[in-house]
Amino acid sequence: MYSAQRLSTLTESVIRDMTRLAIKHGAINLSQGFPDFDPPSALLNAAVHSIQGGHNQYAITWGSARLRAQIAETYARWYGMNINPDTDVTVTCGVTEAIIAALLGTVNPGEKVIIIDPSHENYVAGVRFAGAEPIFVSMKPPLFTLDEAELRAAFAQKPKAIIFNTPHNPSGRVFSRQTLQLIAGLCQQHDTIAITDEIYEKILYDGRQHIPIATLPGMAERTITTSGLTKTYAVTGWRVAWAIASAELSKSLRTVHDFLTICAPTPLQEAAVTALTLPDDYYAEMTQAYHVRRDKMMAVLEEAGFQAAPPEGAYYVLADYSALQPEMSEMAFAEWLTTTKRVAVVPGSSFYRGDPSLSRGLVRFAFPKQLDTLEEARRRLVG
Fold first, then answer.
1. Number of domains the chain contains
2. What is the pLDDT of residues 213-234, one digit of tens each?
3. CB neighbours of 340 closer than 8 A, spacing ≥ 6?
4. What pTM was estimated for this model as a whole?
5. Do residues 74 and 276 lie in contact, with contact meaning Cβ atoms separated by under 8 Å?
6. Gap between the Cα atoms of 49 and 270, Å rounded
7. What three-state secondary structure class fits 62?
8. Distance between the two ends of the chain, CA-based, in angstroms?
9. CATH for 296
10. Helices (H), 80-113
11. Range(s) of the domain holding residue 81
């Protein structure tokens, strides 16, 4: 009776709930997307040095000047983006905060926001917090492709914003230039803001390239690009991320960020500069290691009787368990796998809000793990 009405359609995170269940039953946690290996030693040393060097008080609200300058330089080098670090970069407490601050800062109650489904739980929560109405456009399994007619119909409802994630969690798809051009054209036609989650931008397979939609003609002024340290550098607990946007959009986002969290952790912001100046060899080695993990995960799933398409990016697989337990719902199967086989996964139903029928028979596996961990998962799943 005391809960706010805006929470009436929301529940606690299913992903975090599955982690709690994994801990309770001693399961291998392939549900929540965090690595079980250490970050680069140079990054750990930088964090210690930052703490011991006195960087322990509030940073400037929108981020350490050194880090903002480094983000601008890095994105110029990676993507050719022209970014003013003083007006266009805001350092946040994770991409989750960046997206919710973007929504609260730009979307009015009653306006509409397109969400590309399947999607992370926080997108819907952010839209609801803003008092807005989500419009779901679904990527269809098993290949998780977007339907152009459905997308155009959603834009015809004059949404204030669209949220999407590429490389994509949970499907592993990487949006092609053609798909991004379609979205960009519709954003410009309907005066829609693009809010992007690009946290997996450096985790790509088979030679694929990440393309920020902000680099397409006409999109720099209407895009809020979010990314961060957590996935690329294996520091999910640091909660250091950023939003890149025009000065006008940044001003709105910064107002929310200021009162929501004040600033991201100061010593970790300073250490983040080291992450963004790691040599190219780091990314080559990381990419190779994730190729090996992906191949191992796909082999485990095949041997255990699941069906799945290999991901193009990120580190998740949406796998079909219909051949194993066709009568079970996604949640029931995820709980059964966690408690009986002691391998924790996330039910596909937690990612599909628009058309829940599309999640039928699907669970998500996360594989940012040591090979020994994945081998133990294989032994439990097959045994």
1. 2
2. 999 999 999 999 999 999 999 9
3. none
4. 0.95
5. yes
6. 9
7. coil
8. 47
9. 3.90.1150.10
10. 94-106
11. 41-275
